[in-house]
Amino acid sequence: MNLILFGPPGAGKGTQAEVLINKYKIVQISTGDMLREEVKLGTELGKAAKSIMDKGDLVSDEIIISMIEKRIIKPDCKNGFILDGFPRTLKQAIDLDNILNKLDIHIDKVIEIDVDEDVLLKRITKRALESKISRDDDNSEILKNRILVYKKDTLPVLEYYKNLNKLLSIDGMQNVEDVSKDIQKILT
Ligand code: ADP
Q: Does domain 2-173 have CATH number 3.30.450.40?
């Protein structure tokens, strides 16, 4: 089973991905995590990405696509994967389709976790305060930019999947368990 988890920063994509990878024995492919790993390792890519991520802007489509292209052909993806935080622009969505077509892989479902903007701000501010491993981009000014970027660059991706009849929306304002239950219902 190949899924895309879609939603604004703070919607709970990571939390739900965790539940799904355990249940379906599939892998999570989070472009955010992959980029943070590159930053940690101090690679050229990581150095280029860090200043962009710290502003809450998007890393270039070329970098992201080449990362995904390499990741998706790894053997552990055979059993299925969840894309988390990707695609985030229309260009990424179209390039992804081309990559998957060549590999004869298909996305089964695109699940949108829908959450109101004021709740997002509260959640992420809380995450920033409580987190032991602090993320440089979890502060309110940058978060506001991440939400703006989401609306401008990423919402068109939602329309794209809606038009392809692949999009399923979940009410992300519920507690974690109920969001999980709704996702299960969609997948069974
Ligand atoms: P969140 O889930 O909180 O939105 P992520 O962990 O997915 O954040 O991503 C953190 C940052 O990494 C983004 O703000 C952006 O700079 C960069 N990033 C992650 N995924 C992508 C992507 N698909 N395209 C461009 N930039 C990305």
A: no
